[in-house]
Amino acid sequence: MLIATDYGLRTTDYGLMTDNSFDWQLPDQTIRIGRRPLIMGIINVTPDSFSDGGLFASVETAVTHGLTLIQEGADLLDIGGESSRPGAVPVELDEEIRRVLPVVEQLAKQTSARISIDTYKAETAKLGLAAGAQIINDITGLSGDSGMVEVVRKGRAGVILMHMQGTPPTMQLNPHYGDVVEDISHFFEERLQDLTGQGIAKEQITFDPGIGFGKTREHNLEILARLSEFQRLGRPLCLGTSRKGILGQVLKRPVHERLAGSLATLLYAMGQGAVQIVRVHDVAQTRDAITVFEESQKRSVVRSP
């Protein structure tokens, strides 16, 4: 099955019209992502996530929240049972499975939305796919568990490879780069070559530059300013800035007063034609922002330089 979300051609900063669509291969379907980014709604089945820890820690509240996110316009649901905030303590495998598996199972039965499982543990990912998930969102880029590559290959899962320098407990101690965008791009290029060599199709892979994961304020702002450079890798880009610390640093606002900043980063990325998936807490507001941006773009005049 081919699901098309391609709304046509995009306008570059130079006034040129270019086709910027991507096919993303999942176990039972291929999603074509075009100008309009897919909205991935976040479901943290955790007691300690930085933004909504404890709000959806039970199966019932997590499932209800997932159904609400779909009603608000989520295309994808990302379900995680371990916080990856700076300084977070790892969760044991059995506890992670206990938290997320029933949520995946119930949402897979109650909705046709594509489900992502946010984990770097191979066994959690394997059980999640069997329960109805189609995507693995791995903060370690499939390098945190030696069994993860086989799970992705056998399950033919879509995968989001995130860049992270260090680990959640240590990543903000002293992050350093030569050129942050070039370094991350090199990491993605190496992972793409390595994983395709191990039997994972490039069409299964999406990249996430990992805003806030082993980056300083300046690193994060540099990444946002140069997001379009990642498009040369030929794969979709997932952007996760929702309510994150970089917004608090710029705006001097607490977590629940960062919606405007979250939307600003999304619209800036869309203006670059540089985002295909956006991972967010606030789905309805994100959908509204995308809709207004699209309606404005439809009426813009393309002028030659």
CATH superfamily: Dihydropteroate synthase-like
Classify the secondary structure makeup into a structural class.
alpha/beta
Calculate the terminal CA-CA distance, rounded to whole Å: 40 Å
| Domains (count) | 1
Low-confidence stretches: 1-18
* CATH architectural arrangement: Alpha-Beta Barrel
Describe, in plain words, how this protein is organized in 3D.
This protein has 305 residues and is of the alpha/beta class. It has one domain (2-298): Dihydropteroate synthase-like (TIM Barrel, Alpha-Beta Barrel). Helix content is 37%, strand content 17%. It is built from nine helices and 13 strands. It has helices at 59-72, 93-110, 122-131, 148-155, 180-197, 217-225, 245-251, 259-271, 283-298, and strands at residues 2-5, 10-11, 17-18, 22-25, 30-33, 38-44, 76-80, 114-118, 135-138, 158-162, 205-208, 238-239, 277-280. The strands form three sheets. The protein has an eight-stranded parallel sheet with strand order 11-10-9-8-7-6-13-12, covered by helices on one side. Strands 1-5-4 form a three-stranded mixed sheet, with no helix packed on it. It has a two-stranded antiparallel ribbon with strand order 2-3. Helix 8 packs parallel to helix 9 (283-298). The chain is globular, with a radius of gyration of 18 Å. Mean pLDDT is 88; it is low at 1-18.
Keywords:
9 helices, single chain, TIM Barrel, 305 residues, 8-stranded parallel beta sheet, alpha/beta, 13 strands, 3-stranded mixed beta sheet
